[in-house]
Amino acid sequence: MFDQSLLLISSHLADTNKIALIIAKLLDAGVVLLLYGNLGSGKTAFVKALAAGIGVEATITSPTFTLIDEYDCGRLSLYHMDLYRLSSQEVKDLHLEEYWRGIDFPLGVVAIEWAERLEILPDTYLKLSFSRLADSDRREIQITGKGDQFNKIISNQSLLEFCNRD
Ligand SMILES: Nc1ncnc2c1ncn2[C@@H]1O[C@H](COP(=O)(O)OP(=O)(O)OP(=O)(O)O)[C@@H](O)[C@H]1O
Ligand SMILES: [Mg+2]
Predict the structure, then answer these.
(1) Average per-residue pLDDT in the chain?
(2) Rounded distance, CA 1 to CA 42, Å?
(3) Distance of CA 52 from the midpoint of ligand 1 (Å)
């Protein structure tokens, strides 16, 4: 197993929405998305579109204060977390691994903002690193798959259209 990576450019919010919709259609139950990047880089925006793509009709808000939001009304359950305000001990106490073990919660899509705060990572995950380019709407989104099941995302033709654009 080796990591495969894709570097995408989103020129505006609509691109991020399209990218998230493409990825949503390729996700299976139990997948963990680790979202990295600064404040305002687009992590929650991405999760909102991802949620729509898996059929969650509820309004997605940032779980900065609730820490974990669960949505069970889509093709797959969505567990959306934001670790920004937490210390490493508080992150450990959340026992996030319960969400990808599939015993206490039905397996779904786990999306974790501020994954920088995680000390222990799942065995397989899709890593998405967001960065804001200059003073504009442009965002760089680096997608890395840790696990062979992500090859279909990394090599997806529709996503490749967002690579290497000026
Ligand atoms: N290309 C783009 N992709 C994503 N969001 C964009 C883009 N261009 C502009 N935006 C705007 O940038 C903001 C991104 O905010 P968002 O809440 O998604 O950031 P975040 O990474 O979740 O930040 P935080 O760390 O505070 O949770 C939104 O207001 C969104 O409309
Ligand atoms: Mg956010």
Answers:
(1) 93
(2) 29
(3) 16
Ligand 1: atom nearest CA of 113 is 27
CA of 118 to the centre of ligand 1 (A): 21
16 lines ligand 1 (CB under 6 A): yes
pLDDT per residue as tens digits for the range 35-54:
999 999 999 999 999 999 99
Going through the chain in order, the beta strands assigned E by DSSP cover 4-10, 32-36, 68-71, 78-82, 109-113, 125-132, 139-146
Give the position, in ligand 1's atom list, of the atom nearest the Cα of 11.
Answer: 1
Q: Which CATH number is 131's domain given?
A: 3.40.50.300
Distance of CA 103 to the CA centre of its chain: 22
Domain count, the chain: 1
N residues, the chain? 166
Instruction: Identify the CA nearest to 75 among candidates 125, 26, 128.
Output: 26
159 belongs to a structural domain: no
Query: Which of 32, 34, 2 shows the shortest CA–CA distance to 141?
Result: 34
